[in-house]
Amino acid sequence: SNSKILVELDESTGVAAMKLKSPPVNSLSLDFLTEFCISLEKLENNKACRGVILTSAVPQIFSAGLDITEMCGKSEEHYAEFWRAVQEMWLTLYSSSMVTIAAVNGSSPAGGCLMAVSCDYRIMAENPKYSIGLNETQLGIVAPFWFKDTMLNTVGHRCTERSLQLGLLYSPREALKIGLVDELVPEEKIQNVAGETMGQWLAIPDHARQLSKSSLRKPTVDRLLAHREADVQDFVRFISRDSIQKSLQVYMGMLKRRKA
Ligand code: CO8
After folding, report:
1. pLDDT tens for residues 157-189?
2. Annotated catalytic, 76?
């Protein structure tokens, strides 16, 4: 099949692996986001599933973030539909009642970082070639308030100020130091460590853990729910500007040249 998300549920442990498999870079296209949400909601509604490990099936890359081609040269209707899908992905993941663990086995800029910080716990492969962070300003674009809130809830105010303004991408060591990830492990151990950590989280009674999680995350989720349509309109207006379109084209050109 042409599935971009591989889901494997182990009924004996109640743990599912969601493996991102959309080569070359697991960019978050409209199709990817749609499939991601459907897969996650299916698990959410499956009583046999209590935890999800999010990881990549693409070597070296967790996710390159939002698919930039979805934000270039398209209609306003397309931008709005795309943005609703990005919102939906975050809302579903950040408010999941399941235990969510990101096994970050590759680079994870921007929207990739958002997915990871939306989980309950992050384990990163200690390969110094990998980086993670919200680098939006380096593209001349701005992380929306709910990206910022998710980062803030993870690493605190001061660190979010620096990270977002400078569009910082952190090495695994730096990411551990600021608390952007919780643990570093050798790459070959990452799936095992994620499984063991999941076992510790699942040892807590679900209802108590779920209420604790939602009391911490609900205000952040409610902020987007209250302004969801305005956020779509803000995105469409921003991304449609000639100057922003130009910045994105320059950035895509830079990615291609770097390769040549
Ligand atoms: N979207 C679309 N295409 C991409 C993306 C992307 N995010 N990233 C890479 N690609 C493409 C490349 O252009 C290249 O295409 P081609 O083969 O046609 O030349 C192909 O994927 C492979 O990429 P690389 O050769 O660069 O692969 P590497 O393994 O060398 O590097 C990286 C992988 C590290 C992931 C690198 O590609 C990279 O840094 N990509 C850019 C990541 C990035 O900056 N993403 C930010 C996206 S914006 C976002 O997520 C949040 C926006 C919030 C919206 C705010 C607006 C208001």
Report:
1. 999 999 999 999 999 999 999 999 999 999 999
2. no
